[in-house]
Amino acid sequence: MQNITRHFFSYLSKNKLLNQGAKRWGLKLGASKVVAGVNIESAIEKIKDLNDSGRLVTLDHLGEFVEEEQEARDGMEAGLHTLDVLHEHGVHSTLSVKLTKLGLDIDKTLCWEHISALARRASIYGNSINIDMEDYARYEKTLTILRTLRKQYDNVGTVLQSYLHRGVEDVNALAGVPLRIVKGAYKESPTVAYQNKTDIDRNFLQMVETHMINESYTAIATHDHELIDQVKAFAARNRIPREMFEFQMLYGFRNDLQQSLADEGYRFRTYVPFGREWYGYFMRRLAERPQNISFAIRGMFSN
Questions:
Q1: The pLDDT of residue 96 is above 50
Q2: Which positions fall inside the Proline dehydrogenase domain (predicted)?
Q3: What's the rounded Cα separation, in Å, for the pair 292 and 211?
Q4: What is the distance between the alpha carbons of residues 15 and 229, in angstroms, rounded to a whole number?
């Protein structure tokens, strides 16, 4: 049943007609609980509140799978504006970006120009860029761009997904690169991805532990307290300095656990999405955990 639910909401996340309708609805269906606003100006106070509570932030201007060059250019300009605003307000927030928002599906050279401009602007501000990993069809292209970027900018990292069979192999190949380790939220074939939680969790821990042992900065992105406890114990046993890793969770989820980790002295970062293109992101959150569906229904009636 859980796989059926996951596949259903994964399918909905890519429905362009529903995505267009979502822009007219505004942040309905409970999305306002997990999306910080429709623009950076509406999100900045929430970022400040998170910083005041001891939490760092990575900010995601939502949007993906663009098909027009002007859309991709708009995505790049929005990213530059976001970096400007973050610098102007002096908040502790990096920027997360999706390459399909910057034109990966249109032209690789165009995408390269856009992500390079963002990395350059972030470098000027002493900030960082994290490239979000998308579905497997775009996986190798994303890693190729990352490796090329890293030759010029050391302020760029990416995300690796533990549901992929090749996860540990790629962690080793990217030793020294800041990595955000996640479970993964796209529907993928059994030929490339694990399909059950046990395998995904086991691979998650192995990827995290491998990157830590490789003395590389590691972001552990999970809401699973059991996995978090295992990572904490591993770090303590192996004397991994706390400045070499951080825990991450999504904005609007498990706020009590987020605050608890920050209060314990762990580096903690909240992934904060904003923007009008919230629909695909929200559908994938529903796909990840059936419990999120009731969360959305409650939010729908409280908006």
A1: yes
A2: 44-295
A3: 30
A4: 37
The model's pTM: 0.86
Judge whether 237 counts as a catalytic residue.
Answer: no
**CA–CA separation, 265 and 148 (whole Å):** 35
C-beta neighbour count of 237 within 10 angstroms: 8
The closest alpha carbon to 275, from 38, 34, 20, 19, belongs to 38
* Catalytically annotated residue among 180, 267, 269, 276: 180
Give the mean model confidence (pLDDT) for residues 104-111: 96
**Running DSSP on this structure, what letter comes out for residue 218?**
E
Residues in the chain: 303
Has 7 been labeled as part of a binding site? Answer: no
Q: Which fold has domain 36-277?
A: TIM Barrel (3.20.20)
Query: Is 180 assigned a catalytic role?
Result: yes
Give the model's pLDDT for residue 225.
96
Domains in the chain: boundaries: 36-277
Let me know: does 156 contact 116? Beta carbons within 8 Å: no
User: Cα separation of 64 and 34, whole Å?
Assistant: 18
What are the distances in angstroms from CA 185 to CA 100, 163, 220?
Answer: 16, 9, 15
Is 222 annotated to bind a ligand? Reply is yes
- Residue 297: pLDDT band with limits 50, 70, 90: very low
DSSP run (H or E) holding 10: helix 2-13
Q: Is 212 annotated as a binding residue?
A: no
CA distances 160 to 3, 168, 209, 218, Å, are 21, 9, 13, 11
| pLDDT of res. 250 | 93
Q: Which of 55, 60, 105, 132 is catalytic?
A: 132
Asked if residue 282 lies in contact with residue 12, where contact means CB atoms within 8 angstroms, the answer is: no
Tell me, rounded to whole angstroms, the distance of Cα 202 from its chain centroid.
Answer: 20
Q: Residue 237 gets which letter from DSSP?
A: H
pLDDT in tens, 36-84: 988 899 899 999 999 999 999 999 998 888 899 999 999 999 999 999 9
296 labeled part of a ligand binding site: no
